[in-house]
Amino acid sequence: MDSARAPDAKQAASAQFVGFEIDGQKYLFRIERIQEIITPGSVTRVPDVAAYVVGVSNLRGTIIPIIDLRLLFGIKARAPNADTRTIVVNIGNRTMGCMVDSVSQVIRIPVDQIHSAPDAVAADGQRSVEGFARAGDDLFILLDVGSLLDPASIAIVHRAGLPGIPGLPSSDKAS
């Protein structure tokens, strides 16, 4: 058997994610949903869109909407700095950018350290919080990016504001 082609037991019993932070809280997206991570470039503002849609950007000839996850979650806006990143995600046939405070790591987490989100975390039946994951002393919120950015439910996510999850530290809400 070719050992280079067979996944080892550790890889088979784990999942890979990209870790990022918003207002000091650690989050994860599943890596298979991510196209790339870029530094924020020029964003063209668009009138008459929700405040969390900061505009659109030209990514190598493709116009993509840029969503500021701070604003989506109801957290006070912050000017981009050297750590700010845009995580470009693919959801079905849509490509979108998610602006975050920083991207911390690509991380492999054993499946036994990933826990489903309790029903109390769902807002109006919304399941954008897929679960929670432990890595060392850190607790990450695992987000289902497809549900989070689904056009039919994004307003529900915005109204609910993820930082208000019971038992998690809260943040200054945007007014």
In short:
With 175 residues, the chain is mainly beta. The chain has helices at residues 9-12, 69-72, 145-148, 154-160, and strands at residues 14-22, 25-30, 34-38, 53-59, 62-68, 85-91, 94-100, 102-110, 114-116, 129-135, 138-143.
Q: In CATH, what is the homologous superfamily?
A: CheA-289, Domain 4
The share of residues in helices is: 10-25%
Instruction: Summarize the helix and strand pattern as letters.
Output: HEEEEEHEEEEEEHH
Task: Give the CATH topology.
Answer: OB fold (Dihydrolipoamide Acetyltransferase, E2P)
For the sheet with most strands, the description reads:
6 strands, mixed
Q: Which stretches of 5+ consecutive residues score pLDDT under 50?
A: 1-6, 163-175
Number of strands: 11
From the alpha-carbon coordinates, what is the Rg to the nearest angstrom?
17 Å
Strand content: 35-45%
CATH architecture: Beta Barrel
**Overall outline:** globular
Helices and strands: which structural class? Answer: mainly beta
Number of domains: 1
